[in-house]
Amino acid sequence: MSDKKPVFKPNKEFAKNANIKNMCEYHDLQDKAMEDYEGFWGDAAKEKIDWIEPFTNVLDESHAPFVKWFDGGKLNVSAQCIDRHLDSRKNKAAIIFEGDRGDIQTITYLDLYKHVNRFANLLKEDFHVKKGDRVVIYMPMIPEAAYAMLACARIGAIHSIVFGGFSSEALRDRIEDAEAKVVITADGAFRKEKPYMLKPVVDAALEGKTPVEKVIVVQRNHEDVEWVAGRDYSYNEMIERKSSKCEPEVMDSEDPLFLLYTSGSTGKPKGVQHNSAGYILWAQMTMEWVFDVKENDTYWCTADVGWITGHTYIVYGPLAMGATTVMFEGVITFPDAGRPWSMVENHRINQFYTAPTAIRVLHKMGEHEPAKYDMSSLKVLGTVGEPIDPPAWKWYYEEVGQSRCSIVDTYWQTETGGHVISPLPGATPIKPGCATFPLPGIMAEILDPATGEKVEVGEKGYMCITKPWPAQIRGVWGDEERYVKSYFGDVEKDGKPVYFTGDGAVYDEDGYITITGRTDDVINVSGHRMGTAEVEAAIKKHSNVAEVAVVGKPHPLKGEGIFAYIVLKSDDGIADEVEEVKAINNIIKKEIGNIALCDDMVFVSGLPKTRSGKIMRRILRSIAKNEEVTQDISTLEDPSIVEKIAAMVK
């Protein structure tokens, strides 16, 4: 096994002014939550939310796992994000937008108020969208995407954002499941200085009979598109005529705010439903705790609004706390790998939040780029989406953060609404690759699925959350049975079902939590179960490995063998594949043991990923088994990579 992980303590100067300054303060908050759970959350809700009418009850578990938070409370999420800031922050930048080609817009809170109100009036008056209606948003990373989200929230419509890289079939599935009456899209946008198109995808998705009545088109790149008379309308032409005042709809605390579709084990996407009060409360609290954003800070999350990270940590969380949030249209490696560091310098960014995949790419393409820019404004670095491997962590910490910025390796999901396990930048001593500890108020434990008991140090178990929390998923749209089965059907504690994240995890001797990967990404080799993330972490320790994805492959003796797809930093290593394979397996042997040695390795030029950076392991499993790839590859960053990999494996 690997040696004990090094510990990096928070920067003392930073910690002095942090929102949570040390582990004593963290433990005090967590103890308060354990001693008086409802009191903890009730106090937070009273402090953080501007209620139109106060709630009368904090938590109702009488129909668990269908729970209610802050019953009786009335609010409007759009007003929580905009209106309440106007007295003190109307001239403060709410959104700084940087386009792919370097065009910049600064949108103040007063500007945002006017844009959102106009959009809300457009939806309400011209398209007859009312409270409870579903609106699908299929947009690039432009300010109008945020306006559309907040406009829906303002009038009580439920938005469902579909990532702009999804195919027409995927878009249609989500439109039909949500029974959306309006689609908001754009003609397209810019990527690597070239226009790309979205409107034709919408046109294809709406062929035949669908629930959609109208399509609103934002003209961003002004390329020619087809207009369907009576269905398609130009946002640009209509919006200026709308009033910049729109009274926010009074919403119940448990009224739905949005749907966001995630992939499910059945292949049919799950419409994850998040409700108003609990979600916006936790979005704001985690912004303040995990990123330690202060009044004059400028914060940048590189995600897309099509994913939960973009919802919570580009739009709702930053705006709820009155922060300045950066939106970026382009590719962070274009025109070169210095692009993000140039933006850090130009906008004086204080918090930077991205995915390990992006970090690895930036490291590989521009190892020494950060040194060319003034990075002194940075205070907190964040990662999201998967555990960050030690080599990427080291470069991120030393070169990007100049060995003084805390790295918050955040663990959460679409379903959790916001972070649930994460370091606190001013308090938590960090171990690279560890999610560390549950945030205050989150009762997260690693449980033995057979007994429901907390596992011992070093034993793998299921990562569970044993009490409901305000931002949790409220249901799968239109399918109560699937909600219960998907999230509460695997583990019980004290005879009661608890929320199971779907991930495995392990405690170390100091109580730190390390996520070992999806329990359905487990390979059973000769009766021994091991997470693919564990094997991948070992392989990544080879100095010439840039990226790796591990899957299981049927084996006549072992049941399953381990198949690794490896992207090398330097192609020189491929000159002697035998030696490279031997060196990598030696590392696996040292880190895990002989049981984890790879039966197959193939060196590839890239891995099949979505544009958000998620590696599509189901495709790789099909290739390893010499099966036909039946999955939709149109959403991949580079669909051609699938054919290239398949040709190498055959």
Architecture overview:
The protein is an alpha/beta fold and 650 residues long. Among the domains are: 106-252, Rossmann fold (3-Layer(aba) Sandwich), CATH 3.40.50; 521-649, GMP Synthetase, Chain A, domain 3. The protein contains 20 helices and 32 strands. It has an eight-stranded mixed β-sheet with strand order 12-11-8-6-7-14-15-23, with helices on both faces. The protein has a seven-stranded mixed β-sheet with strand order 5-4-17-16-18-19-20, with helices on both faces. The longest helix has 18 residues, at 109-126. 51% of the residues are buried. The model has no long low-confidence stretch (mean pLDDT 92).
Write the layout of secondary structure elements.
Blueprint: H1 12-16, H2 23-35, H3 37-48, E1 57-63, E2 66-71, E3 74-75, H4 77-81, H5 86-89, E4 93-98, E5 104-108, H6 109-126, E6 134-138, H7 143-155, E7 158-161, H8 168-178, E8 182-186, E9 188-191, E10 194-197, H9 199-205, E11 214-218, E12 232-234, H10 235-239, E13 251-252, E14 256-262, E15 270-275, H11 276-290, E16 298-301, H12 308-320, E17 324-328, H13 339-347, E18 351-354, H14 356-365, E19 380-383, H15 390-400, E20 406-409, E21 444-447, E22 460-465, E23 475-476, H16 480-488, E24 492-493, E25 496-497, E26 499-507, E27 513-518, E28 522-525, E29 528-531, H17 532-539, E30 545-555, E31 559-568, H18 577-591, E32 600-603, H19 617-624, H20 640-649
Parallel strand pairs: 4-17, 6-7, 6-8, 7-14, 8-11, 11-12, 16-17, 16-18, 18-19, 19-20, 31-32
Antiparallel strand pairs: 1-2, 3-13, 4-5, 9-10, 14-15, 15-23, 21-22, 22-26, 24-25, 26-27, 28-29, 30-31
Helix pairs in contact: 2-3, 6-7, 8-9, 11-12, 14-15, 19-20
